[in-house]
Specification:
The protein is α/β, with parallel strands linked by helices. It has helices at 4-13, 31-35, 37-54, 65-77, 132-143, and strands at residues 15-18, 26-29, 58-62, 80-86, 94-101, 104-111, 120-128, 147-156, 171-176. The strands form 2 sheets. Strands 5-6-4-3-7-8-9 form a 7-stranded mixed sheet, with helices on both faces. It has a two-stranded antiparallel ribbon with strand order 1-2. Helix 3 crosses helix 4 (65-77).
């Protein structure tokens, strides 16, 4: 697992953007991590070590920043990668799951043949906030009969308590704000 100093290096690279995407929000910007080869590798290594330890057979990533980390982890470990996308973005037959937003509802989808019954999967995304999107993604994984072994996030915004909406014993975040 990553050392405390490695995690501190990653944490210091996360940029706060005030009032984005709307007033009152402090957005945690991961693009400095992505732009720096050493930091990006460090982040991928964090995910990959945890994914290997969890015994995953496949990696599932949430649209869109979960794709960046998840696909790289899947490649590094020689595993398949499954995208969970916003409604209407996948070309084949899909299963969908809805979740509540601050003002309304959103839907995510996954191909019906993306995971197999009993297959052990890790879910990867960049950030755990309220947990709505991740909970919908987990619902899709379980509807398809696969087994979530862990949901992993680079960042968790602890004050939003999104973990309470997920199977807490299977949630891992590397950085906490």
């Amino acid at each position: 697992m990553p050392s405390d100093s490695d995690l501190q290096i990653l944490r210091s690279a996360i940029r706060d953007v005030v009032d984005f995407p709307k007033p009152g929000i402090v957005f945690k910007d991961i693009t400095p991590v992505l732009a720096d080869a050493k930091l990006f590798r460090l982040a991928i290594d964090c995910f990959a070590e945890a994914t290997r330890a969890a015994g995953a057979e496949k990696v599932v990533g949430i649209d869109a920043r979960g794709f960046l980390f998840g696909a790289a982890v899947a490649y590094q470990l020689g595993l398949g990668f499954v995208p969970i996308r916003k409604k209407g973005k996948l070309p084949y037959k899909t299963q969908s799951a809805a979740y509540t937003l601050e003002y309304g509802e959103a839907v995510v989808e996954m191909h019906v043949d993306a995971v197999q019954p009993g297959e052990k999967v890790v879910l990867i995304d960049d950030l755990l906030a309220t947990g709505g999107t991740a909970a919908a993604a987990i619902k899709l994984i379980e509807l398809m009969g696969a087994k979530l072994v862990e949901a992993q996030f680079l960042i968790e915004l602890d004050f939003l308590q999104g973990r309470v909406n997920l199977p807490a014993d299977r949630v891992r975040a590397f950085l906490h704000f």
